[in-house]
Model the fold of this input.
Amino acid sequence: MTAQKSDLKVQVNALYPGIVQIRRDIHRHPELGFEVQRTAGLAADYLTRLGLKVRTGVGRSGVVADLDVPGASRRIALRADMDALPIEEQSEQPYRSQIAGQAHLCGHDAHTAMLLGAAALLTERREQLPASVRFIFQPNEENLPGGAPAMIEDGAIDGVDYIFAQHVWPLIPSGRAGICRGAVMAQPDVFEIEIIGVGGHAAAPHQTIDPVVIGAQFIANIQTVVSRQIDPRETAVVSVTQFHAGTTHNVIPERAHITGTVRTFNKTVQRKIRNRLRDGIAAICSVYGAEYRLQYQEGYPVLINHPRATEQARRAAGRTLGEENVIYPAEPFPGGEDFAYYAQQIPGCFIFLGTRNEQKGLVHMLHDPRFDIDEEILKHGMALLAEIIMQASRSEE
Done:
């Protein structure tokens, strides 16, 4: 083990208890969307104490801090998201959410804490860094249109040459990391359908146009769009997540509402599925004599890792975790991430940081009410982010 690597490990261990407390503090006080003022204030205060140049209110409620290195010809950005989810947490942990119906069930509390830890590590090494660093703390990753476009519009990546981010990942064991080559996350579109029929008494269905039956048939039919109309070599998902109709047992309602998501990595496939949804609801409503309204919102772009940034991240992960603990190339996942907007503008890489620990019972997927992280990974995450900068600083200018 080199002296520099040993020194980094010592400092990580020294910072770890404080970073755990920051993560738990944020976890207790989850905030949604752009309304992350408490979390942003916590981050800004920490960064200010480190002596960094801090801007607040970026992209409405984001925080940007610069670690300037005299003579450096490049600037590299590290990004964390801060927002939580509108889900009730199922946990008995002392740091569980204190706000009903809101919880950090996607790990953004950990992302924020690890990036603050990385800022502390890198500030200590300012004199060794020929690359300046920008720390980006972003709101509203979970909701379309995302917080990244607002951050970009407010100059969050102006003058930045590369950008990196990581996401805690319960599909990968703790102590390991996954790095994709090329596509990482899908385009997550949202569709909403309103079926307008004719309501009436449940005992006289022949006098109605039943939107519940129409909706049920539509949902059943679209299950074959991916399995029978999309090339099996392509990855695509169509999921219906909401179906609302009626108010009581003896009335056939006039309207039904269906909501769902389409996940694709290929624009041609995305357009084909979108057209099939439109044609499918139009056809079944025509058969029954119902009307419909379809709203289709395109989500974040496909997230693509840039080759040069990916290689930097892969080297840093190997040095931090050991080459045997780096899954490369990792499999892409059909979730969505607005980090894609940054990666469209400048070379970027998005890393999966393993947090699965079966011995501790930490096996639940992101957005599950039971999701939690293995807090040991906070060490790995802040060290990995710091190493990305230090590794990049040794690259050819």
Remarks:
- The chain has a mean pLDDT of 96.
- Residues 73 and 211 are 62 Å apart (CA to CA).
- The chain has two domains: 3-184+302-393, 187-297.
- Residues 3-28 form the longest helix (26 residues).
